[in-house]
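Example record

One chain of 458 residues, shown exactly as stored in the release files.
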Amino acid sequence: MSLEGAIAVHRFGLGARPGEIESARHDPKGWLLAQMEGPADQPQPLGQTQLMTGAGLVADLIQYQKDREKERRSGNAQDPVKLFFKNRVQIYNNEMQARYALGFSTARPFAERMVRFWSNHFVVSAQNPRATTLVGAFEREAIRPNIDKTFEEMLLAAVTHPAMLLYLDNAQSVGPDSLAAMISGKGLNENLGRELMELYTLGVDGGYTQADVVALAKLLTGWTIDRKGSGETGSIFLARIHEPGKIALRGKTYPSGEEGTEAAIRDLARDPATARHIARKLAVHFIADDPPQESCARLEKAFVGSGGSLPALTEAVVSDPAAWSQALAKMRTPVEYVTASMRLLGWPRTGDQQKQVQGAMAAVRLMGEVPLGPPAPKGWPDTSEAWSGPNAVLNRIEWARQLGNRVGSAIGKEDAMAAATAALGGLLGKETQSVMRGAATGGEALALLVASPEFQRR
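Predicted structure tokens for this chain:
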């Protein structure tokens, strides 16, 4: 079976569904690039649940705040944190169930991988209570529609989405010399300005100063959530809270207003330091924790030469020779590991699909990862060391054992061996085949496959 077909499915995809390596083997690179035509697929809700728009969720959040204020004034206020999670955490769970299900079953796994890469780059974390209900809408509205466009288009969509404005406190940021500041006494918040340069564009070594952070924060004032529901996005630019006057940022002066703000964001997207930062991040994700400098330079050149075209950047990743090495250099994250396991089984399976997805979600949490919920704006780590500690590996082995027990007598040893060949192709090692043959049952053989080093890596 084609080794390159197996590499395409695992290194660039989400793990092989039955027959997927066979589909990829004739033209692995073409198979991958065909998946990137058009925006990414949107997750579909499971059961009777619904997925709300960002604008709808903002309106819901504002109404929630109004109701709590009424309760406070009446003297009947309940614990706001407990009430929030009681009434709102289901929105997050609905979003994650739909996201997991799409990963388990999609015929465009490379496109889904790119969505998840960019969502872990433009982080909005569910760990922030203000953003919990909005993280799914953020990915659906800012990331998925833009994977076939330019970096700056995705950047603009991400920065101005209500989820980002709430997560990094720009919704509360007020220009120090604005009319609103004189009336309310509120001030500037630097969080979004700092992370926009340090994490999303230039990188920590991108050549900016604290004065630049302040300047960018002033340029970003005005962008806040739409409390009146006057638009379709849930966010709005309000001139009365924007810092008036021209603002100098990194040697260039920008005019006051939304036009100047957008120009500053676009300039950051096109900066050579941004090209270097994004190129290395992609190389780390797809090639190795310490990728070859030649690969980083090739991706950087593609970024600059195409004006930040994401399709061009994607093609450069797929065309890089180092990305096709047989060595399985990257450890799968818990979400990737459980997703690959479910794809191996050809999910959806018979039975309660919603319950199956919920079980997978619980397993991932035990392994230490919360989708769209990293502890900091820098996102979940993208290196093998972060996911390969002794406890982490033991948790994976236990998940594999439980998976084998659930399959039980439904699969024979020969079926398990055939599944191993279909799932890993030329990546399947002789040692794994040997221990699987020595298994007592088909379920045990399957567990050994899922626990094998080559299945845990990509």
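Notes: Residues 46 and 353 are 8 Å apart (CA to CA).
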